[in-house]
Structure of SDR family oxidoreductase:
Amino acid sequence: MANSENNVAIVTGASRGIGAAIAERLAADGFTVVVNYAGNAKAAEELVDRIEAAGGKALAAQADVSDAAAVTRLFDRTEAALGGVDVLVNNAGIMKLTTIAEGDEAFVDNQIAINLKGSINTMREAARRLRTGGRIINLSSSVVGLYQPTYGVYAATKAGIEAMTHVLSKELRGRNITVNAVAPGPTATSLFLDGKPQAVVDNMAKLAPLERLGQPGDIANAIAFLAGPDGAWINGQVLRANGGII
Ligand SMILES: NC(=O)c1ccc[n+]([C@@H]2O[C@H](COP(=O)([O-])OP(=O)(O)OC[C@H]3O[C@@H](n4cnc5c(N)ncnc54)[C@H](OP(=O)(O)O)[C@@H]3O)[C@@H](O)[C@H]2O)c1
């Protein structure tokens, strides 16, 4: 991508957490950003206001990524409003923790529907529609590698996303589109923090040699590199952004 001006990025799950930091960073880099969300319209609209107040361009767009038709409409609306799509950041995700023995059917189905099928839904549309020079960046997790107890189903969805990343990078041969994944370690968002006792959080923060939790901005920096001109030669890779935890 020659430069980020006039290029359009869809960031899924951008109303909060890591996705919001990615949207703000890509907007600061010159992208027009589509701030996708599932249910939190207020947070998405407030983020659009913040981006615009800082001189960037953004719009909010509701779509449940697990619904293939809704994802098609998200891309249709983006093309109609902004002329095309150059970057997809597949960030929307949920994490539920329990052992494989304890997890019921809904526990399994929800994570597969949103994390894995949701990413497949958006990758399908991106593969069909991204303009030449485009970028697809998927959010995996460093649990693919750490494999802690209770993370089995979540890790399986992220391992599937890594597999799709490698395959799609090859399927897009000749289109000048790269497909990569970023795999954060523990990052200070509600997905990681909610329901964990402070002692567990403190313990996990010390696991990486850099001895702190990741911040959403740390992950946005890695995404911005892959989305921008300096990332042009990186393709089919998984970048673990985790302070060295694994
Ligand atoms: N935080 C970590 O430690 C960590 C580590 C490794 C990887 N990750 C990955 O990083 C990504 C972002 O995580 P986060 O920590 O920022 O999570 P978060 O703070 O819980 O935010 C999740 C975002 O995803 C959206 N979302 C949830 N279900 C959706 C659906 N069906 N369709 C569209 N959007 C949906 C939410 O939208 P609403 O606000 O509308 O609900 C929200 O914007 C996830 O893929 C996660 O697996 C996180």
In short: The first strand starts at residue 8 and ends at 11. Strands lie at 8-11, 32-37, 57-62, 87-90, 135-139, 178-184, 238-241. Residues 12-19, 36-40, 43, 64-66, 91-95, 114, 118, 139, 141, 184, 186-187, 189-192 surround NAP (CB under 6 Å).
